């Protein structure tokens, strides 16, 4: 396995697109101080993924920074490989390159690209990355690559052509399925959304807000059907059953128990995504509350 220097088995997934980069770095420093082992974030038309990684890595000391995911339609494969190797050389073991094919509406609207044959597109992209010459930076500086893998074929590709998978919006049973397909020698870094509130109505509201966009995307709809949900769960924002399946709602101990289920199912590392009342909510209050329940120091 390509090395990743996680200081703990639990990290954070947080999009700072609505925050200034200086404020995001301040939060990354406290996330590190709280004992979380990583900070992952997405790329969906906000901050550019590699620039943000450089800023967060430079502003922290041990925190692993991961793209969850960098959109392969946003830059060429040589550019991705060059940027990844450079970050890997500067911060050995602390950068994780998560890659994904994204979604047709975003690719066609924001990147003016065409979205077809995602599996073969990803395979060819990785092959082009592998062919990058050593003059960029030695291939030995290449950081771990994870794929946004939900279906069986993309999971298999994450094992054969990458270093593992980054499952997002999945149950612990899906984490177990991913581990079974990948075997013991690949990374599995699963995301778990949490709504720290003992008021069920508040928890459901936050969960439905989070799921609203995803519930309209074919990739996730197919994934949820494979995970045992049905068409009645795929309403806008998801059904209550889907919301409770995807989001850990309750106190810190309840959220920590959901994280443990992913770890027990075979995840090497779990990134918690705190859901607030809107996307601009500060995740730190909930992360401070959650850290002791997770056994972090």
What key attributes describe this structure?
single chain; 12 helices; TIM Barrel; 10 strands; alpha/beta; 44% helix; ten-stranded parallel beta sheet; 297 residues
Describe what this molecule looks like in 3D.
The protein is α/β, with parallel strands linked by helices and 297 residues long. It has one domain: TIM Barrel, CATH 3.20.20. Helix content is 44%, strand content 15%. Helix 3 packs across helix 5, helix 7 runs parallel beside helix 11 and helix 8 crosses helix 10. The longest helix has 15 residues. The two termini are 27 Å apart.
Q: Quick recap of the structure?
A:
The chain is of the alpha/beta class and 297 residues long.
Biggest sheet character = 10 strands, parallel
The radius of gyration is 18 Å
CATH homologous superfamily assignment: Luciferase-like domain
Query: How widely separated are the two ends?
Result: 27 Å
- By CATH, the architecture is named Alpha-Beta Barrel
Low confidence ranges: none
Computed structural class: alpha/beta
Pfam families: Bac_luciferase
InterPro entries: F420-G6PD/mer (IPR050564), Lucif-like_OxRdatse_MSMEG_4141 (IPR019922), Luciferase-like_dom (IPR011251), Luciferase-like_sf (IPR036661)
Organism: Pseudonocardia parietis
Protein name: F420-dependent oxidoreductase
Present the secondary structure layout:
Layout: E1 10-13, H1 21-33, E2 38-41, H2 49-58, E3 64-67, E4 70-71, H3 77-90, E5 95-100, H4 104-110, H5 118-130, E6 144-147, H6 152-160, E7 164-165, H7 172-182, E8 187-196, H8 200-214, H9 218-226, H10 240-246, E9 247-250, H11 252-265, E10 269-274, H12 284-293
Parallel strand pairs: 1-2, 1-10, 2-3, 3-5, 4-5, 5-6, 7-8, 8-9, 8-10
Helix pairs in contact: 3-5, 7-11, 8-10, 11-12
